[in-house]
Amino acid sequence: MIAFNKPPYTGNEDKYVMAAMRSSKMSGDGQYTHLCQEWFEKQTGCKKALLTPSCTQALEMAAILLDIQPGDEVIMPSYTFVSTANAFALRGAKIVFVDIRPDTMNIDENLIEAAITPKTKAIVPVHYAGVACEMDTIMAIADRHQLFVIEDAAQGMLATYKGRPLGSIGHMGAYSFHETKNYTSGGEGGLLLISDERFVVRAEIIREKGTNRSQFFRGMIDKYTWVDIGSSYLASELQAAYLYGQLERAEEININRLKTWSAYKSAFSTLTDKIETPHIPSDCQHNSHMFYLKLSGLESRTRFLEAMSKESVMAVFHYVPLHSSSAGKKLGVFSGTDNFTTKESERLVRLPLWFGMEMADIDKIVSSVTRSVYL
Length: 375
Ligand SMILES: *Cc1c(COP(=O)(O)O)cnc(C)c1O
What we know:
This protein is an alpha/beta fold. The protein has 2 domains: 13-246, 3-Layer(aba) Sandwich (Aspartate Aminotransferase, domain 2), CATH 3.40.640.10; 250-372, Aspartate Aminotransferase, domain 1 (Alpha-Beta Complex). The protein is built from 13 helices and 13 strands. Strand 6 (160-161) and strand 7 (164-165) form a beta hairpin. The two termini are 20 Å apart. It comes from Pseudomonas cavernae.
């Protein structure tokens, strides 16, 4: 069976993890955490980058920083991972789902304004497959209505929109280093990117259980104390050390994934009567996070997945739209009509893609797909 994913590993991760284990500091905010955070601040130009134990927790921090209160509304696509919604639902927000664009599976920027009410606090665009949402339009809407924009860039590391790194365009952004993403910090991990300077000081407090401990360690105050709500949002040094091994080889990982993605893209260019392949708008440089195919509908997808399984290739479908889930019905509402969210999600399958995939695997998958789409 060809796996769907293999966690990225480049060679130096174990060396750094061992060094972190043998140092006197394995808890968060040590040497490797700082090396990683500096790398991201330089790479994205953000005011502050903070490593977290997961992207889920980075999104939770963002919701706390925005002071989301019960009754506030937060706009996002329904075609996303549960954490996008949970982070805000945990603070009592009502989730307002907006339909997606069929070409990118991203929130339809032209439908956002109709979903805004006096209770709206934030817009949360999700950059699906590392392909950017239409951020100029979204930022202009946010500006007009004085809303915050939190980018769920879980899949977006090293991808850009008009040359700007995803996660650095809104007020805040979040990356994931889960082992299914392009870069991992040892299975689980995340990052909060802060572009709006107003959130920096409080972010460090919230991350340190609501204390001003970070300022204390920098010598800015002479004792630390409880000053705000907060939680335990520091990544361990072992996570940071693993990630640092990958950041040193970040470009190599990116180029290697792009090679596989492009091989799929050109191999399937002859099957356009049966399947659609991802569309990349000209303003977007993606990061080859995902290669998906779209079949004609739910039935042909089910048949395709069965055929792929018989071919010993692990292909998978993706999100079940949140608004149709039991929690989504309770905690959210769909704004307008679901023209594409359900229909397009039922057509989509993801193909195996990982760093270091062999050409033989790619060839095998391509021929399996070619047989399976004609069944
Ligand atoms: C992976 C993912 C998350 C969650 O990331 P974790 O690091 O596993 O918490 C959130 N949103 C999106 C869009 C994701 O793909």
